[in-house]
Amino acid sequence: MLESFPLPIDGKKVMVKPNIVVRSKPEQGIVTHPSIVTTIMAQISSLGPARIVVGDNPNTDGYGENEATMHETGILAAANGCYENIGTHAFPVDSNPRFFQKLAISRAVFEADFTCTREFIGAILKRRPQINPQTCEPCDICTKGCPMSALHLKSIPSVENDKSDVCYCCEEVCQTRTIKLA
């Protein structure tokens, strides 16, 4: 799978952030299937990273029950010893007070040299953050939440596509749902 998207990750920190929406069985098709995580882990491991962290912050039904959710979804086993509860190591970032005073950004995501997410396949297909200028309220949340510093605020945020690793953090923190990967 990674042959068409060579990754210069030798000696780097890699964050694998599968899509863990709710506590569910893999066969329900709600979360990233553990077989995909197993494949990604094997291929990334073969490229010699310094460290791999597998983690996510489950929504609604699993929030606060990170490890139990990872176990039930099968991702804990697929992580092959690299699972980390990324929700316990977060730091606050100022937000647009209209929505939230602060947002919590996971340190593991922010400090990773490369982030492999549900949008990883989108990166292979050259998907990039797209910003709708009609709905953007230039609050600067996306620029602060971007671990790659790929977004810059002008009248609206702009994206340096060569810096973006398509981790979808900007889409995730955007309170107006202005940013989409396309």
In words, what does this structure look like?
The structure is a single chain. By secondary structure, this protein is of the alpha/beta class. It has two domains: 1-118, no CATH class; 127-182, Alpha-Beta Plaits, CATH 3.30.70. Helices cover 24% and strands 19% of the residues. The protein has helices spanning 34-45, 66-73, 75-78, 107-111, 120-124, 141-145, 169-173, and strands spanning 13-17, 51-54, 90-94, 102-106, 114-117, 129-131, 151-153, 157-159, 179-181. The strands form four sheets. The protein has a three-stranded parallel β-sheet. A two-stranded antiparallel ribbon has the order 3-4. The protein has a two-stranded antiparallel ribbon with strand order 6-9. A hairpin with a 3-residue loop joins strand 7 (151-153) and strand 8 (157-159). The longest helix has 12 residues, at 34-45.
Name the descriptors.
2 domains, 19% strand, 9 strands, 24% helix, two-stranded antiparallel ribbon, Alpha-Beta Plaits, 3-stranded parallel β-sheet, alpha/beta, 182 residues, globular
What is the helix fraction of residues, given as a range?
Answer: 10-25%
Main beta sheet strand tally, sense and closure: 3 strands, parallel
- Overall pLDDT score: 79
Q: DSSP helix count?
A: 7
Task: List the uncertain runs.
Answer: none
Number of domains: 2
Q: Termini separation (Å)?
A: 21 Å
Number of strands: 9
Q: Which strand order do you get reading across the main beta sheet?
A: 2-1-5
Structural class: alpha/beta
3D shape: globular
> Rg to the nearest angstrom?
16 Å
Q: Secondary-structure element sequence?
A: EHEHHEEHEHEHEEHE
